[in-house]
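DM from R.C. (forwarded with permission)

"hey, sorry to bug you on a friday — could you get me a structure for this? deadline for the figure draft is monday and I only need the backbone to look sensible"
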Amino acid sequence: MPSKLFSYSVFGLFFSTTACSAASPTDEQLQALVNGVVTPVMQQQNIPGLAVALTINGKPHYFNYGVANKNSGLKVNENTLFEIGSLSKTFTATLAGYAQASGKLELNNNASQLLSDLRGSAFDQISLLQLGTYTAGGLPLQFPAEADSADKMLGYFQQWRPVYPTGSQRQYSNPSLGLFGYLTAKSLGQPFDQAMGDILLPKLGLKHTFIHVPDTQAKRYASGYDKDNRPVRVGPGALDSEAYGLKSSAADMLRFIDANLKPAHFEHSMQTAIATTHTGYYTVGDMTQGLGWERYAYPISLTRLQVGNSTPMAMEPHKVQWLTPAQPEPQNVLYNKTGATRGFGAYVAFVPSKDVGIVILANKNYPNAERVKIAHTILSAITR
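My reply, with the result:
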């Protein structure tokens, strides 16, 4: 196991060698950097397998560790499929941006305008944008157990009442973002799974990202491991596809990040969709809430980035400061999003002004602070 001294020495060596040259870091320098920060975390957190993917000035770099399945011993590679959990929300948000760019919905419209079953409920006064930015008024992190199924969730929404004035508090919520995706699909005239699989993923050029992993890809689908190191995969739940249901590979996720870094080669509607997800709608502390993505001024300290991705940010309400008008992408910002299921942990971050991004996928749910530390260390080195 590398010592902290060894890790810091690698980091210092990387800085000293890259500072002397304007050229991009070599593969050997990157490998040493990534090894130095990933290996200790994997050992400390008992992570069976982990994939890191970097895009630097449009060039991909892959670093793979451990096994996708402890029983078979199958090694992780850039095509291994991981559950990405709430990173799925960034895809749902992009689909919504595309629907708006295509004239199918308007984010400022109230939710009940798209679904008659919600008329006469609190959702007569809650906009799609508020659902997509977790400001409906206190929808919880998860559905109550008695409502966590496709046939019960509409009844739950019909009787739900806001805890806070609509638009006043950010309360991170799967039901909120899930309903946002469900209504987006309604606007497109398709079930959500079909809209994602037939519209968004092909338009983004993603061929190995799935809601339901097909039999032909089953061997690529990693086994997740819970806190007791037992194999586990995500189970069904209300609006699971919309909120946390995607499975993807490091290679496909890097393509998605490249699409966010350089959207100009896509059709106009997709360019507009990506810009919509990057737009800042309100602030909470250092974080500016986009649609799916969360952004920060860059550079940012490790501590501040960890606070933005902390348990209190996910579990507690936070008063918001709306940006009027909404703020398009400024210079020098970092976008990020975490994701997890019981057996998987994911993190993505990218800095458009530096043309760099990172994907970290693991088949164990380990602390966000550790994921953020890996990414922050690597991005700080390559953008110095």
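R.C.: lifesaver. DSSP finds 13 helices and 15 strands in the chain.
me: no worries. The longest strand covers residues 333-341.
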